[in-house]
Amino acid sequence: MMIQILNDDFKTLQQQVTKRQQQTANKPEIEAAVADILAAVRERGDAAVKEYEAKFDQVELDDLKVPQATIDAAYEACEPKLLDALKLAKRNITSYHEKEITHGFIDAEQPGVIRGQKVLPLAAVGLYVPGGTAAYPSTILMSAIPAKLAGVDQVVMVTPPQPKGINPAVLTAAKLAGVDAIYQVGGAQAIAALAYGTEQIPQVDKIMGPGNIFVATAKKQVFGQVDIDMIAGPSEIGIIADAGAEPDQVAADLLSQAEHDRLARPMLVTDSQALATKVAAAIEKRLQTLPREEIARASVDDQGFIAVVANLDQAFTLMNQIAPEHLEIQLPEPMTYLNQIRNAGSVFLGREASEPLGDYVAGPNHILPTAGSARFFSPLGVEAFVKRTQFVQYTKDALSNEKDAITTLARVEGLEGHARAIESRFED
């Protein structure tokens, strides 16, 4: 892993990060390919979906929906240790996200005026669960549990089909989380099916969940037809550590994200040259025994970096510029640094708060903003599954008190019809 000694302005490294984020977001050839898939599914429904599944996933499908009997059988056959782990995760995710539930309000403080807001759940949401090189039952819990807490009526899941069937752990997690229906569809065609609806797959109001660049591009293109959570890019982990950090643990945490994807970005920022050197050596040693070594090594070599800065203030300045998906603070009394963090998806405080804790059982969501979007996006939560409707009621006396202000503003904006609508309430 490359070690860089940085000056105060961090300009070179920040330009590299920004360039990577732009490259991840803009792929014209993928945009065009995805647009074709969306159009085909919109026009031909299930037939197009099945053709793309045969082409991309090499699976011939007669029925897109996974039978309930198959889901129940997977749950019943689930290894007790795994089921216990999923139940623990469910309890912690539930106890965390139920604190996010909000309710509407009514304001009747002004005489003759009632104002308020209703908070309503979305009717239907679609959860995209990645397949491919790994199974992610944890993602189902992270997606479906907040949706159910929000009161969503219909939670449907799509996940790429597998030649030997969908991973039983995925089916078990879906049942445990309360998913209402599962469809074995992946890629851009799955996003299209959720956005437009097909003969079998219902149209939803919002689509969420991580996926590859085709999935991310499809979500971007259907936004407006439906809502989406965010445009998720490759995983990232940033660690701020000083000379007292344990090099082998820092290396292990960096590799926990590097093994996700060749484009994942592991980043260490430290004020200790000695720690930087030791972590680089520990990474190499650990890579040699990591089952996903090829993927993790590509991530480390091509995307990762270790930056040595003059002091910890510089470390926080740099990380706030990068806005990483995951940020570990491996410093003494880490809570004292929380106010220095402005941009990060999820923060892990202290030596024992290793990032995989958040991936599985801590409770905070692991569907997080990436590629610098933590500057303006938030982690997935209950609020992502609700909408707000405003309401207002005035008596004639209350309206009389404010009619002149309304008509003045309307005429300044050149909207005479607005003004006359108010004045009509006071005509003889």
Automatic annotation (TrEMBL):
Q: Which reaction does it catalyse?
A: L-histidinol + 2 NAD(+) + H2O = L-histidine + 2 NADH + 3 H(+)
Q: What is its EC number?
A: 1.1.1.23
Any one GO cellular component localisation term in the record: cytosol
Question: Short name of one Pfam family for this protein?
Answer: Histidinol_dh
Q: Name one GO biological process term.
A: L-histidine biosynthetic process
Can you tell me which residues bind Zn(2+)?
257, 260, 359, 418
Q: Which Gene3D superfamilies match?
A: 1.20.5.1300, Nitrogenase molybdenum iron protein domain (3.40.50.1980)
Q: Note the InterPro entries from the entry.
A: Ald_DH/histidinol_DH (IPR016161), Histidinol_DH_CS (IPR001692), Histidinol_DH_monofunct (IPR022695), Hstdl_DH (IPR012131)
Binding sites annotated in the UniProt record for substrate: 235, 257, 260, 326, 359, 413, 418
Q: In which pathway does it act?
A: Amino-acid biosynthesis; L-histidine biosynthesis; L-histidine from 5-phospho-alpha-D-ribose 1-diphosphate: step 9/9
Provide the binding site for NAD(+).
Answer: 128, 189, 212
Q: Which positions are catalytic residues?
A: 325 (proton acceptor), 326 (proton acceptor)
Query: A GO molecular-function term, please?
Result: NAD binding
Matching entries from SUPFAM superfamilies are given as: ALDH-like
Positions of transmembrane segments = none
By sequence similarity, the record places it as follows: Belongs to the histidinol dehydrogenase family.
Write out the function statement from the record. Catalyzes the sequential NAD-dependent oxidations of L-histidinol to L-histidinaldehyde and then to L-histidine.
- The protein in question is named Histidinol dehydrogenase
